[in-house]
Amino acid sequence: MNAFHYAFKVKDIKSTRRFYVDILEFEEGTSTESWIDFNFLAINYLRILVLVCTLNEF
Description:
The protein contains one helix and four strands, in the order βαβββ. The chain has one helix at 13-23, and strands at 2-10, 27-31, 35-43, 46-54. It has one domain (2-57): 2,3-Dihydroxybiphenyl 1,2-Dioxygenase, domain 1, CATH 3.10.180.
């Protein structure tokens, strides 16, 4: 399956996690203290992931 990432810089990883999981109901993938990978969509042979990182990761 091919994967495509959207990446966003964020200030607060904790509130970002709450937003994506509780509000948007995305499934959380892998993560560390400074970034989170969310599963956004999987259709046929395409998987779209959303990666959010704290500002100091870029």
